[in-house]
Design brief:
The chain has about 240 residues and is of the alpha/beta class. Helices cover about 35% and strands about 15% of the residues. The protein has an 8-stranded parallel β-sheet with strand order 1-8-7-6-5-4-3-2. α1 (about 20-35) packs across α2 and α4 (about 105-115) packs across α5. The structure holds phosphoenolpyruvate and manganese (II) ion (MN). Phosphoenolpyruvate binds near residues 79, 99 and 187.
């Protein structure tokens, strides 16, 4: 028998790589909340490898997120790259993400440790599992134990996937730390065709949740176009995950 959407709803964080406009973000949030997904990625600062690539809308994007948030009951996850943005971000953002590139930005981590806001800490692409876990202590040492650990793949020699999804990291972090572990299947794989089996594998390894990029029109996405699911693709992914096929 088909389960209803909210029954056994797996912990999902979904949404676009980056907020690009009010219309685009509103359309995506409308679609996702309609399906019962309420934890929404809303990247406004995009640390990109290439300096000339789209860097996100910045604080202007935050205003869009604020407006859209008024219309839906959502939890917003967004990356903080500079502690000077903290007060502005806290007005709208519920979970602050520390991206892979800032996993060892220790002064940023220490400042976030003074908050009670949940922090989603991503593993650096070249960080060992010990370094990843140690980074979380820069947050918890200042009193914030509200941490979500996020495996997002590490560098490897293999170009079939964007990064190498390290599921042993999931199992080992679960063994040592008392924090939820999230697996970002989009940035680790960089492709869409194996997201479902790897999400299942992540749950089998002990992950508490999955992060996945969803865009209303991935072909024209200003970042990570290749890995973002369109609505139809997300429908299939979500249905299979709920049905646990
Ligand atoms: C992101 O989640 O938007 C992102 C940039 O991921 P990462 O820091 O893992 O590269
Ligand atoms: Mn992305």
């Amino acid at each position: 028998m088909k389960k209803s959407q909210n029954e056994d709803n797996p912990y999902l964080i979904a949404g676009p790589c980056a907020v690009e406009s009010f219309e685009m973000f509103d359309e995506i949030v409308h679609y996702l909340t309609d399906k019962g997904v309420s934890r929404i990625r809303a990247g406004i600062f995009k640390p990109r490898t290439k300096a000339d690539d789209f860097q996100g809308l910045g604080l202007e994007g935050l205003e869009i997120v604020k407006e859209v948030k008024k219309r839906y009951h959502i939890t917003v996850i967004s990356e903080i790259v500079d502690i000077r943005h903290l007060d502005r971000m806290l007005e709208t953002v519920d979970i602050l993400q520390v991206g892979a590139r800032n996993m060892q930005n220790f002064e940023l981590l220490k400042e976030l440790g003074r908050l009670s806001t949940p922090i989603l800490l991503k593993r650096g692409s070249s960080a060992t599992i010990h370094e990843f876990m140690e980074a979380s202590r820069y947050i918890s040492n200042n009193g914030n134990y509200n941490i979500l650990m996020c495996e997002r793949g590490i560098r490897s020699f293999d170009t079939c996937t964007r990064n190498l999804l390290d599921l042993s990291c999931v199992a080992l972090v679960k063994q040592s730390l008392n924090y939820p572990v999230i697996v970002d299947v989009s940035h680790s794989l960089g492709r869409k065709d194996i997201i479902y089996p790897m999400a299942k594998a992540a749950f089998a390894a002990g992950a508490d949740g999955i992060m996945v990029e969803v865009h209303n029109d991935p072909f024209v996405a200003r970042s990570d176009a290749k890995q973002q699911l369109d609505f139809e693709e997300f429908d299939h992914f979500y249905e299979k995950l709920i049905m646990n096929e």
